[in-house]
Amino acid sequence: MYTLIIMSSHKNTVRQHVIGRGLLLLLSCVILGLFLGAIGGFTYGLSQKRQRVSTENELQARMEKEIQQLTQAKRQVESELATVNEEMTDIRQMAKKIQEALGILGQGGDLNVTASSGESAPQQPDISALTDAAPDTDEQQLTPTILKEELQALYNYINAYQQQLLGYPLILPVKLQQENGEQHVFWYSSRFGWRNHPITKNREFHQGLDIKTRAGVPVIAAADGTVVKVGKSGFLGNTIELLHEISEYKTLYAHLQGYAEGLKVKEKVVRGQIIGYVGNTGRSTGAHLHYGVYDMKKERWVNPITYIFDQKPTFSP
Question: CA-to-CA distance for 253 and 277, rounded, in angstroms?
Answer without folding.
Answer: 10
